[in-house]
Amino acid sequence: xxxxxxxxxxxxxxxxxEEFIVPEVVAVMSKAIKNxxxxxxxxxxxxxxxxxxxxxxxxxEFCKKHDESEAEAASDLxxxxxxxxxxxxxxxxxxxxxANFRDVKELLDALCQNVAEMIKGKSxxxxxxxxxxxxxxxxxxxxxxxxxxCDRDFD
Amino acid sequence: xxxxxxxxxxxPQELIADILCRLPVKSxxxxxxxSHSWYSLISNPxxxxxxxxxTTNKKPDRLILISDSHTLFSVDYAADSPVATEIHFxxxxxxxxxxxxxxxxxxxxxxxxxxxxDVAMYLLNPSTRESKKIPESPFALxxxxxxxxxxxxxxxxxxxxxxxxxxxxxxxxxxxxxxxxETNTIVSVYSLKSDSxxxxxxxxxxxxxxxPSGVYLNGCIxxxxxxxxxxxxxxxxxxxxxxxxxxxLPPPLVTNAVLPWFYPPVLGGFLCLPAYTDVWVMxxxxxxxSWTKFSxxxxxxxxxxxxxxxxxxxxxxxxxxxxE
Lengths: 155, 324
Prior knowledge:
The structure holds two protein chains of two kinds. Chain A is mainly alpha-helical.
């Protein structure tokens, strides 16, 4: 397959073994991949561990859009970004982890902004349960004083 | 609340910081109580600095004004139809004390104001409604005998806010004791971090002219003053990092005239001086050659003095003028 690969195309392989053919300009929007390509330590197929096919497809979609729309109006791209990041919590966290790990700055920016918007008006209690669910143990065992804000909702 | 997944991905600390950096101050002060790690992250001075630079890349969009009834108002002038809303500070000890005489300075979103009731200075944060009473400077002189000037600024070297108090007094012979005193200016600096005043070397300028509240820009607080040696009107800058004074000349032709002092003079990061129907803008900070004159109106029927209020989008100014 790699022999018939067009020039300037790369294959990205997700953690669950699925392969995606993407233009090099799109793939190198990930700094981590860019470094691999520049150091020539990548063959045509680049493994992307920790990122499954589902998430990898989303990241590629985002990068493609940003690559194509350089000439497009910034407002259009903004609309695309805000729609793109508008996903369930689970996908959102997987995307953030992938964008962080693969160092895709534009995507990470859009995602962090989205999370900030999401949690801006939430109560402390809400944040603890939803955003830091995994850290509940830490919170419960810490001697931090639960103050009156816990039960108030800010919406 | 539903049970959460146990395998929730753990976001690395730098990502949490990145997200929190985008939040308004109001949310941040609330989220300090989420957990130990969030508390220490938000309280970190480095985080505060990053947060400030990130959020102030936007133009300032709020004015803090004092009404005739001595209440503070906030005006969001970036809105389509700006409305003035009252701001009250519940943290001021006594509710009846929430009256203000004068705004003495502002810097990085904080306001230094003089309280009408107890004639003390308060440092106010209009975003969080927090307030802090500033202890009186033990070095400042009574305003009957001296000219007091003050200013608020941020010192990046010590990473903290400082308030500077200048007490200028005229020399002369004391009629009762016969002792002679020399004209001098006592300079004291308050640091918010240590919550204390400190006396430093005096200033050689005559701080008796112009507006009493200093203006903060570029790590320096600026006042109008006269040079001690030849009585020429200059703009004196106090460098908060090195705690030294330096000076530059006001625009040509405005020298020696009574300067209609800036109010408020920093617009979009430039030092400005309104002069009747013109405004002088110092395009390159500290370079007197860069004073540039902008004429606002050619209309001859407007003879009253104008004041600059703020810089709007597209380089427009918002002006106010005194009605006869």
